Amino acid sequence: MALNSIKKEYLCELKKRMPSHPDGLTIVNPWSTQVGNLDRCRHYFRLLKKGYCGTYPAVDYFPQMESLLQAVEEGNFLIWLAYIDNQIIGTSSIEIQDGIASLVSSVNVERKVNIGILLYKRIIDLLEWNESIWAIDGEIRLTRNIEIAGTQIESGVKSQHINLKCGLKPYLFCYPKYSMKGRLRGKRQFLLFARKLFEPAIFDPVVFTPFPPNNRVGIAEILNLSCKINNEIAPTFSHDVAQTANDQSGYVHICRNGHPQFATAYLSGALTLDRIAGVVRQELEAVDYLELVTLNSPSNLYIQEAFYSLHAIPIGVLPNNLFWKGPKEKLYGTTIHFGLLKNTNKNTFLPVDFCNELSFASSKETMYRLMQEWKKNESSFEY
Length: 383
Fold this sequence. Notes:
single chain; Aminopeptidase; 2 domains; seven-stranded mixed β-sheet; five-stranded mixed β-sheet; 9 helices; about 30% helix
């Protein structure tokens, strides 16, 4: 399968933006036989622990070496290593699922050497080696710099900038997806960047969304903000009356991926409030954070209204996202996203720093209001 025109254009764009190669720097890609899989995994854990003082959330994905090694050997987790004079000084990784490449962890333990080229090269290598990738995304932790045991932990501002330079666009705002370790235990708000690599790679012409109740932040406001950040023309919003829901149809698909802290629930069609509340209650008994996703459709307006009534927080819209319909069949269409926290596990949000490209008044105001909603997050029923 040849690269489509969007991927070819994107690769050319990345190669032009990629910084120069530092003298003496060697990059070992995931397909190289120079490093065995077990040694690669050991280096990865060691570098993350050293670079982030044991606080980085990526180690929650693979708490045991065996699970990381399995993912690497199955080709679902790719690790790049950076060397200077035969010494490993950095790493970067990508997780692959259903054709979506998630930009995960990167760390540089030798601050005197700039290995920014690695953040570009991992995407270039991936698209040249794996033709089945149709989307790239990356989650950025939103906090201010924190000092732990005398070491400064970066806030994610640099990662925000790099993702924008790599052509990814911010879509989902302010969702507390991970528990941090050590002194940062608790939830932290995140910002999702995404890039679609197939046609069409734009929003549906019309996004169906209800008016938010009680002056809360609405999907339309968040989507308008993301379009403004990316200098895009905002889509048209429709508030047509939804179809009547009933108990006889509709579908629900739950995706946990074996993670104990969060799950994603895909809901669409004619679902009653009681059934939606039952899904939420069941999932939040098992996990701390639940993402609620519905396909952009006039018939799903009722589902969005149900999300609001359950005090879910709107977090954004993804254009042409992957959407489940049954255990195997998948649809591509714009999806609308909300989130919920377990009542017994609410967190105190930290102040947020943005990179310069995102630091204008409207983004700060919307993010502040969203954080206030997360802090309140008082559900109408007990989980």
